[in-house]
Amino acid sequence: MIVAFEQPFLWFVGYSVVGWIYESSLVSITSRRWVNRGFLNGPLCPIYGVGAVLAVLLLSGIANPAVVFVAAAGGASVLEYVTSWGMEQLFHARWWDYSRRRFNIQGRVCLLGAVVFGAAGVLIVKVAQPLVAAMTSVIPPAALHAVCIVCAVALAADVVVTIRGMAGFEENLDRLKAVIQEYASKAGESLPVWEEPTIARRMRAWSESSQEAFTRLRDAATSVLSAQQRRMIGAFPRLTSTTSSAYDSLIETVRHLIDRDGGDAADGDNR
């Protein structure tokens, strides 16, 4: 009886890994640097795993690929919307934003994404899943139990570490703001009002004009923000706060520091 739950769980893990490869590769290519796109630290994007398994369980009995396409596109869009809303409520941050794309709903989902998910749903249900199911069905029960236990423990540990690492994100941004203001005051610099949209550009220009200023800002971000928080800022280019534009200015500045630091390191490796 337990095998009936273990096999779908293994499918979930597999499709989550495939989703992570897709997301990380896409963002890494556009960013021209390696980016771990997953919300978790491990090589998984759970939203892809959940969507794929739901498509398999709910749509496998549908013969018409067009119906599968429409159902997968609509279901995945609902899942993405709910996930965006839930993460926003939990962390007070917007992780992705499709507002610049046509035919979007509150920036959480868009038509292009729905089309991609619909096509992926057809590919999974009609092509990939029969092969995946055939492979997992021949795994001996003892090995299946062991693999699922290891994956479940690793996933649970990753979730705990990730959530703990993101705890106090806004409080740390407030601390970073205070550190930057203190340094600016000592350096005789004046910063505009934090809520103004120009503040991020001002700090970016400030860091680019002086290696000392860049180093101070980078060290401040490293000391105040957790490694998890810095990774999230670098991995999600559209990450914004839902509570204050001042946080957005800080996030954009930290993202610039991360990008520049990575670029400098890459240049150094090439020399």
TrEMBL record:
<dbReference type="Pfam" id="PF06541">
    <property type="entry name" value="ABC_trans_CmpB"/>
</dbReference>
<feature type="transmembrane region" description="Helical">
    <location>
        <begin position="12"/>
        <end position="31"/>
    </location>
</feature>
<feature type="transmembrane region" description="Helical">
    <location>
        <begin position="143"/>
        <end position="167"/>
    </location>
</feature>
<keyword id="KW-0472">Membrane</keyword>
<dbReference type="InterPro" id="IPR010540">
    <property type="entry name" value="CmpB_TMEM229"/>
</dbReference>
<keyword id="KW-0812">Transmembrane</keyword>
<feature type="transmembrane region" description="Helical">
    <location>
        <begin position="38"/>
        <end position="60"/>
    </location>
</feature>
<feature type="transmembrane region" description="Helical">
    <location>
        <begin position="66"/>
        <end position="88"/>
    </location>
</feature>
<feature type="transmembrane region" description="Helical">
    <location>
        <begin position="109"/>
        <end position="131"/>
    </location>
</feature>
<protein>
    <submittedName>
        <fullName>Putative ABC-transporter type IV</fullName>
    </submittedName>
</protein>
<keyword id="KW-1133">Transmembrane helix</keyword>
